[in-house]
Amino acid sequence: MPTLSERDAAVLWHPYTQMQTAPLPIAITRGEGSWLVAEDGTRYLDAISSWWVNLHGHAHPHIAARVSEQLRTLEHVLFAGFTHPAAVELAEQLLEILPDNQARAFYSDNGSTAVEVALKMVLQYFHNQGQPERRTFICFQNSYHGDTFGAMAVSSRGAFTEPFWPLLFDVEFIDVPVPGREAEVLAQLDQLLRKPQVAGFIFEPLVLGTAGMVMYEPDVLSEMLRRCHAAGVLAIADEVMTGFGRTGPLFASSLLAEQPDLMCFSKGLTGGTLAMGLTTCAAPIYNAFLSDDKMRALFHGHSYTANPVACAAALASLELTRAAECTQQRQRIAAAHAAFKAEIEDQPGIRAVRHRGTILAVEYDPGEGTSYFSRLRDAFYQLALDNHVVLRPLGNVVYLLPPYCTTDAELALLYAVLRRMRELVLDFVPAPNLPHILHD
């Protein structure tokens, strides 16, 4: 009989994968806490929360029970002209803990669609206000907001989007205001804000994930938002990755003195249980769509908008996330990351170490530029698997973003793997002329 991996190879097409050269995928049959268990019984420590979605561990009994209960009550109902308890309760609870200016919630299916909704809200807001010429977005270099067309357009141009460049709308890119470059980036922003066609500024708050976990500070982002608001430009916080405690507080935007006008969520929204996206907005944006004229409505929706089962998973995950135990778990992981950063950051083979909350990124120095296509990537990936750890290196940048239930002993295993990667780097012979791009 063929294995599950062999059956997969006969019928499936995987994301971000060159299927002709890729090895057979590892078949995972169950999960337990921070661990994934393969068909052959091998256990793998999930150091990246399965693409940043899992908050509380795999197959969490509390979330599973709530999902099961919802399935026996109502599995789905159309959300145009109808509603249901879980959708209302989730919106109420989220708006209670989001920044005070967030007033309305719009459900969708994933992070990309949450961003698409926000972009459409901004563009139609100005259209409804009689300013249809305002349709330009400002974005960070090396940003990533999703793989649908609008989300690709406001993401950095690179090898993964090159076939679609002619179809993407134009945006204005500015540099990331990393420490030491704040004044320079503020000047770039000021220059663009003088253009009357600018509508919105979309950003990953404090951490650019696929750029290699590039980090910047709340003060400069708050100042950027103040300048946007002074120019009448709307600000979109893409918290798809940073939301629900990854950066320390429940939301990275909570650290800002000036708040975004719209916010996007997915990934940890349901604790990694079911697909769901969410876009929230301030009251003035919602109010701009209210009219006796039906053509001023937001004509956007998805078949599974506000799916009751996904809402039930999100409510259960949010209950766990808001508990004191989860806060303590995040603080414990953050403290362990900080200690490891202090240990390794000045050692040979290390270019930089970045840390915020439960996110840790080590940028190794292979004697060449930082690149997603670094030959180290595959070596790092295999080294991790050989040590029963799931990592997804961004070229020569390796990050940890573990579930909050990850124990100190499990963290110690992850740090040991990162130390072994440094040893591998010291023996690495660089190759010239690699493209400098990060994406995942």
Give your account of this protein's structure.
It is built from 13 helices and 16 strands. The chain is α/β, with parallel strands linked by helices. The chain has two domains: 156 residues, Alpha-Beta Complex (Aspartate Aminotransferase, domain 1); 260 residues, Aspartate Aminotransferase, domain 2 (3-Layer(aba) Sandwich). The protein has a seven-stranded mixed beta sheet with strand order 4-12-11-10-7-5-6, sandwiched between helices. A four-stranded mixed beta sheet has the order 1-2-3-15. A three-stranded antiparallel beta sheet has the order 13-14-16, covered by helices on one side. Strand 13 and strand 14 form a beta hairpin. The longest helix is centred in the last third of the chain and has 21 residues.
